[in-house]
């Protein structure tokens, strides 16, 4: 079922001789002004894309991590009349991960930006050699800033990170949805949809 500003862009299915035996549909998120889509930032580009679509705002943030690496980020969104909608389960959460969950003040708090950092993880011995050879880059710091405060989910200000930093956000805008790229058990890239704070 389509949600947010999803648009039907095509059909798919199966047929047998002269009849249709299965019918499906393909949807894509259509970004209509004043909403803007911010490019996903992070590591490996060759992973599966996911897209939660566009909503009124973000209500809940759930992030799991392991060994200083962000493994997953799942969101719950607020839509019309403060109804909440779950985002995609795009990464399998494995028991043993460190999980942090934050609830925003419904109707009164919104995310203004997301700050993060990604780079290679330097393990010891063979693991380190393989990591450097393959060139995988992981999200190693992530925090969400709102109009009320900051939710730090991994890393800290004093830590010295190797790699690149990024910020998702625009002045005078709030984040109303997320998209990105993941493998089956790791979040590699995260992007966002933003719209003006004063926009209905």
From TrEMBL:
Originating organism: Camelina sativa (False flax)
InterPro entries in the cross-refs: Jacalin-like_lectin_dom, Jacalin-like_lectin_dom_plant, Jacalin-like_lectin_dom_sf
Lineage top rank: taxon: Eukaryota
Protein name per Swiss-Prot or TrEMBL: Jacalin-related lectin 45-like
UniProt KW keywords: Lectin, Repeat
Residue ranges of every copy of the Jacalin-type lectin domain listed in the record: 1-29, 35-196
SMART domains per the UniProt record, alphabetical: Jacalin
SUPFAM superfamilies given in the database record: Mannose-binding lectins
Pfam families for the chain: Jacalin (PF01419)
PROSITE patterns cross-referenced by the UniProt entry: JACALIN_LECTIN
UniProt keyword annotation of Transferase present: no
Family per similarity comment: Belongs to the jacalin lectin family.
